[in-house]
């Protein structure tokens, strides 16, 4: 990987694992410092430490696909095109780190990425040179105590969802609160949303998306369907129970999907988006 120090441990030709180096970007990504963790991870462990999110610009079979990933640790971005032999690190400014979610928008051919402060960026690969990163929404908070998702609403608005987790008596991490905010790009502020206007919202390991409740009688309006995607918890205890919940924005309560099947523990469950179309 370019600008990311990752050493492979091999015995003969077989991959045995990885030695990871931690990059401290406290002084800004340009002046990052490397620290050797001196920790060894086999491939099954390392995959939970190398990246957090992935977004694709197109079907890879088209041959014209850009893959953008969020690394773990300092949550920086790297990209690769079809045929590239290595990942290219997006760096150079203190803003280019601590990302928590991203997606690709077919309509404007831009990647959108959200930082832990609520600051939102676009990443434009349309030029022939390096990608252009633009700050489109200033930070909302300074103190970070939750996880944030970014999603495009059916009517075009950009939406942030903030997730608060807590540890219960048995040591499990559970989601305690979900709050939806609409981003006002003109006035650079957020406003809480309680009405999803006939849609349900799906969050988890996959890219977040909305579905009209008219697609299925099983869906409830103003509901957030959430699968457990706490990478730190899952990576450390992968066979523990995964929480799959529906959160009602109207009643402000969680409902767990029961019965809990142990087959959902591993691999972590994801939502599969159906191809239903509905015009209201």
SSE run: EEEHEEEEEEEEEEEEEEEHEE
- Beta strand %: over 45%
User: Globular, elongated, flat, extended or rod-shaped: what is the shape?
Assistant: globular
What is the SS-derived class?
mainly beta
The major beta sheet can be summarized as: 5 strands, mixed
Give helix % range: under 10%
Rg to the nearest angstrom? 19 Å
- The mean pLDDT is 80
Strand order of the largest sheet: 17-16-18-19-20
Which segments are poorly predicted (pLDDT under 50) over 5 or more consecutive residues? 1-11, 25-38
InterPro entries: KIB1-4_b-propeller
Protein name: KIB1-4 beta-propeller domain-containing protein
Pfam families: Beta-prop_KIB1-4 (PF03478)
Organism: Setaria viridis
How would you briefly describe this protein structure?
This protein is mostly beta strands.
Account of the protein in words:
- Helices cover 5% and strands 45% of the residues.
- With 280 residues, it is mainly beta.
- It has a domain at 1-144.
- It has a five-stranded mixed sheet, with no helix packed on it.
- β6 (77-81) and β7 form a beta hairpin.
- The N and C termini lie far apart (47 Å).
Architecture blueprint of SSEs:
Elements: E1 6-11, E2 14-24, E3 33-41, H1 43-50, E4 51-56, E5 66-71, E6 77-81, E7 88-90, E8 99-105, E9 110-115, E10 120-124, E11 132-137, E12 147-152, E13 158-167, E14 173-184, E15 189-193, E16 199-203, E17 209-212, E18 223-227, H2 231-236, E19 244-248, E20 253-256
Parallel strand pairs: 16-18
Antiparallel strand pairs: 1-2, 2-3, 4-5, 5-6, 6-7, 8-9, 9-10, 10-11, 12-13, 13-14, 14-15, 16-17, 18-19, 19-20
